[in-house]
TrEMBL record:
<protein>
    <recommendedName>
        <fullName>Choline transporter-like protein</fullName>
    </recommendedName>
</protein>
<keyword id="KW-0812">Transmembrane</keyword>
<feature type="transmembrane region" description="Helical">
    <location>
        <begin position="266"/>
        <end position="285"/>
    </location>
</feature>
<comment type="similarity">
    <text>Belongs to the CTL (choline transporter-like) family.</text>
</comment>
<keyword id="KW-0325">Glycoprotein</keyword>
<dbReference type="GO" id="GO:0022857">
    <property type="term" value="F:transmembrane transporter activity"/>
</dbReference>
<dbReference type="Pfam" id="PF04515">
    <property type="entry name" value="Choline_transpo"/>
</dbReference>
<keyword id="KW-1133">Transmembrane helix</keyword>
<comment type="function">
    <text>Choline transporter.</text>
</comment>
<dbReference type="GO" id="GO:0005886">
    <property type="term" value="C:plasma membrane"/>
</dbReference>
<feature type="transmembrane region" description="Helical">
    <location>
        <begin position="305"/>
        <end position="326"/>
    </location>
</feature>
<feature type="transmembrane region" description="Helical">
    <location>
        <begin position="38"/>
        <end position="59"/>
    </location>
</feature>
<feature type="transmembrane region" description="Helical">
    <location>
        <begin position="164"/>
        <end position="188"/>
    </location>
</feature>
<dbReference type="InterPro" id="IPR007603">
    <property type="entry name" value="Choline_transptr-like"/>
</dbReference>
<keyword id="KW-0472">Membrane</keyword>
<feature type="transmembrane region" description="Helical">
    <location>
        <begin position="116"/>
        <end position="144"/>
    </location>
</feature>
Length: 373
């Protein structure tokens, strides 16, 4: 059993190497994918701007409350006596009418909650839109029998168009599922905050268990959604069918999936840390005034670690955004590879679609190629 397990791990590692190599090869005809994260970033900015504008308008749509202020010398305090907007800033004896706050009614509070849920849904929707577009682009490379002749020239733009034209409903449904789980988690956090003043160990334990379960559920749904989006990009089916087929495919190759996931995470982490190090080391040398040539052009900072940390965190966030493209490429090509191996056998009727380099690594070959030789 141990030998079989080690053999399956070795085979899974080889498949992982194939997927990573394939993602690097697909970077040539998909050079636009390297700058694709800029589009979701801009869409997120527009979403936050819209959400903020609506939130401000709702907050200022309540009823204005005016009260008299006691203007006695040394005793400028609000009274409980209300006044009208027509009396604003008017002084009557020692009292002056002043605006105090906007009083929101119950409907405005509900609209604020609705607006916030819309923000969460929009964020998940933008992420899903980008994932389907990238998956469609990388899948078009894998399933092209003649590479790169059969690959669309602007594969990423073509994938984005296909997503917008045919798959927005599937993306919206997948993002809605994640939104529901995230809202439940927020409600649990709110309940936990309210119950902190009560010393009830059973309730605390129950809430912790619920929070842990829904955290795990959200992680699983994100993983399932990502693979469902890939199957949508490959076959164009609806979300539920794609999620079911993706789950079955992954369960049939669970060892390969685990190895690929961990190896890819390790490679991405190393890449992010290298980029952060490349940015952080020069930043530290400059702001700590260890570069004599630049000391005359820089102000002396009392807390120079703050800009260093800010720049390093920013570099990590930006690196994570761009490395997400590589992660999507690996996952897409891996699912395409699994589908290719299960559906085809290299015969003239069912030839492999994988590249010649991948077939060489796996020891596979199309019989049509053998006949040509």
């Amino acid at each position: 059993l141990f030998s079989c397990f080690c053999s399956s791990l070795a085979k899974a590692y080889r498949d992982c190497h194939c997927s990573n190599q394939g993602s690097q090869q697909s970077g040539g005809p998909h050079a636009l994918s390297t700058i694709f994260p800029i589009l979701p970033y801009l869409l997120h900015l527009l979403l936050f701007a819209f959400w903020g504008s609506v939130a401000v308008y709702l907050a200022s749509s309540g009823t204005a409350e005016f009260k008299y202020m006691n203007m006695t010398h040394g005793n400028n305090s609000l009274t409980t006596q209300s006044c009208s907007a027509q009396d604003f800033n008017k002084t009557l004896s020692h009292l002056r009418c002043q605006f105090t706050q906007y009083v929101a009614n119950q409907h405005l509070s509900r609209l604020q909650i609705y607006n916030f849920i819309g923000l969460i849904w929009g964020m998940f929707f933008i992420v899903g839109l980008g994932q389907v577009a990238l998956a469609a682009a990388f899948a078009s490379y894998y399933w092209a029998f003649r590479k790169p002749q059969d690959v669309p020239f602007f594969a990423v733009l073509h994938g984005l168009w296909i997503t917008v034209r045919y798959h927005l409903g599937s993306v919206a449904f997948g993002s809605l599922i994640l939104t529901i789980v995230r809202v439940i988690r927020i409600v649990l956090e709110y309940i936990d905050e309210k119950l902190k003043k009560y010393d009830n160990e059973f309730t605390k334990c129950l809430l912790r268990c619920c929070k842990c379960c829904f955290w795990c559920l959200e992680k699983f749904l994100k993983f399932l959604n990502k693979n469902a989006y890939i199957m949508i990009a490959i076959y164009g089916k609806n979300f539920c069918t794609s999620a079911k087929e993706a789950f079955k495919l992954l369960m049939r190759n669970v060892v390969r999936v685990v190895v690929l996931d961990k190896v890819t995470d390790l490679l991405l982490l190393v890449g992010k840390l290298v980029i952060v190090g490349i940015v952080a080391v020069p930043t530290f040398l400059v702001f700590s005034r260890k570069v004599d040539a630049l000391n005359n052009h820089l102000p002396e900072l009392n807390y120079y670690m703050l800009p260093i940390l800010t720049i390093s965190v920013g570099a990590y966030i930006i690196a994570s955004s761009f490395f997400s493209v590589y992660s999507m490429a690996v996952d897409t090509l891996f699912l395409c590879f699994l589908e290719d191996c299960e559906r085809h056998d290299g015969s003239e009727e069912k030839p492999y679609y994988m590249s010649k380099e991948l077939m060489k690594i796996l020891g596979k070959q199309n019989r049509l190629q053998e006949a040509d030789k």
